Structures are given as C-alpha cells and as structure tokens.
Amino acid sequence: MSKLPKTNDLGFFEIRLESIGGLGANLAGKLLSEDGVVGNGLNGIGFSSYGSEKKGSPVKAHIRFCNPEINIRDTTPIERPHVVGIFHDALFKTIDCTSGIYPDSTILVNSQKSLDELKTAMKIPSGTIAIVDATGIALEEQTKANTAMLGALYRILDFLDPESMKQTIRRTFEMKYPHLVEPNIRTFERGYSEVEFKTFLLEDGSEPTPFTRPIPLLGYETHAIGGMITNPGNSILKDLSISRAGMLPHFHEEKCINCAACDTACPDFCFVWEEKADKRGRPQMFLQGIDYQYCKGCLKCVTACPVDALSGEREYNDGYADKNRVPHLFDLAIQN
User: Fold this and answer.
1) pLDDT given for residue 246 in this prediction
2) More confident call, 317 vs 296
3) Cα 152–112–186 angle (5° rounding)?
4) Where along the chain do the CATH 3.30.70.3270 domains lie?
5) What whole-number percentage of the chain has pLDDT above 90?
6) Side-chain half-sphere of 55: how many Cα atoms within 13 Å?
7) Are residues 150 and 32 in contact, defined by beta-carbon separation less than 8 angstroms?
8) What is the C-alpha separation between 112 and 90, in angstroms, rounded?
C-alpha cells in the first residue's frame, strides 16, 4: 500500500486539476483516482465539475486519497489542494487557479514560460512550481496533453507507482482505441521525465496567506437592475484565446486571393475585411487579417483555404496573437 506524504484534518490528500474542455482533464482525473485505488491500494474518489462541455469552457477535476481505514464521506469540491494541475496557462486570465493552496503546495503548469514567470503570473508567495510542455509533447506524439500531465503528476505524486498508471492507460485505450495505447504511454513517460521543478520559500518575516472562501460577485443585492446580463458569453464580447490548445492560424497575405473560404468555415467570425478598389478600380472586399481574440484555434480556416494563405502553427508565448491581431471595427467602437 502507498503511504501518503501529508493529509488534511480529515485524513485526505487532495488534488485539483484546472483545465478547459477538450484537453482531457476529466479523463485524467478518472484515471488518476482509479489507479490510486486499484493500483496503489489507497481509498479514493474522483469527480469533475464543468458546464456546457463546449470546447474551451472551464473544467475542474477533484481527486481525494486517504488510507484504506478512512471512509470518504466528502464529495464537495476541493478548496484546499495539496497539488494543483493547470492544463492551460491562459486560465490565469479568468480563473484563480491557485485558490486555497497551502504554503508548501505543488503547482504543475502546462506551459512554456519560465518557473519565475509563472510565480509572478500566479502571484503565489511560496510553494513548489513544476512545469512541463504537455501541449508540445502531445502535438509531437499526436495525443492529448492529459497523459503528459499525468506523467508529470506521477513525478510529483511519488507515492504512486508510474508502472501501475501505464497499465491503467493500456486498459483504458486497448479495447476501443488500440492504436492510441503506445503513443499515450510514450506521452506519459515523456511527461514524467521532462517535468522541471523549483521551490520558492516565504520571505523572512512574511506570514502565509490565510485561507478565505471566495464570495460570489453577484447576489440579490449586487446584481444589475432587472437581472440584466451585461456581458453575454458569446463570441463577440468573449475572449476565446483561452480555448486554444496549442495551434494558431498564421495569415500569409501575399498568397491570399480573397475568396472568403476561410470566413465561411470560421465558426467565430475571426476574419476582418475591408472594402478597397481592385486593379480595375472596382470595389472588392480584401482580407486584412485575423482577430485572434475570438480565435479558438480550431484551424478549420487552414483546411478550407485553397491557396495555402493560412497555415497552422504552434502557438508560443511570444505574444504573436497580440502583435498580429487585427481588431474588428466594433471593438474599436467599444474602446472609444
């Protein structure tokens, strides 16, 4: 039986996975809780919380482990995790991914940023930060980021046997998707071996931040008059960049024939057009570029383009989307 390194007052070691729909955090939580119980002799439970299941919407997976003699009678969401797994570093834009962590919690992030950059972005005073390029591994192995994240998690959760998880992955995929067994095991092994760590200590004299339960911003006293929804969750006002899972379309203007096949295929109206005169002086719509704020990286436009004026490229943390974004006119009107 595995021995837990630490527990809370109820005897639980708790893990929370922060993700978006499409990255496989729900399945990762199921595999992790299953292997902790079946493969490592612990008592455990795993469950997820999510909304519409649309690709890009927030997903949380909650896993509790304890010794076999302890009964788990708690199925509430995990507020004070010993380990947090963050499947997409753009989640920092909208979600407090590290809420409730202990001073010595471990935070695993799927990112290409440096460990010091992540500490600043997450605004945490102390703890251990682990980083792995799970998206890059998944793209190279043609799998998903979840098994790479599981590999990195098993490096952190050293009380669990990684060989046992490999068998769990094999059982999960071999019946329906036998061709995905070996790629996912390779992805797991790479996540396990390629993760990096750095521990940050509290500064001298500083105190740990006390835990406070988040309070909803809107209630019966603070809601807008008439129950109005002032910021509807549609693609016109919502920033969809958090939905991208590693790929981004690049626009090559010199190849474009302005056929609008990309605009027809795009589900979120990301393409920006301007009417100008053609070579004969006739009015024609010309493609100016892409408003990346609304692009979720589905790459349907790349498939639709007949002249290779769009290419699917790996999205790096170099600010390409912000630097090359061509805003829609209604955005300029809103800003003014």
Assistant:
1) 81
2) 296
3) 40
4) 241-335
5) 63
6) 12
7) yes
8) 11
- pTM here is 0.83
Q: Which two tokens stand for residue 36?
A: 């902790």
> Given this model, what pLDDT does residue 318 score?
77
Sheet strands side by side (includes 58-66): 43-50, 58-66, 13-20, 83-86, 106-110, 127-132, 196-200
Q: Are 310 and 249 in contact (CB under 8 A)?
A: yes
- Band of the pLDDT at 228, cuts 50, 70, 90? low
Q: Which CATH class is domain 241-335?
A: alpha beta
Listed as own residue / partner, the contacts of 231-237 with beta carbons closer than 8 Å and 24 or more positions apart are: 235/267, 235/268, 235/269, 235/294, 236/269, 236/294, 236/330
Find residue 250's DSSP bridge partners: 311
Pick the CATH number of 13-200 from 3.40.920.10, 3.50.30.10, 3.30.10.20, 3.30.420.10: 3.40.920.10
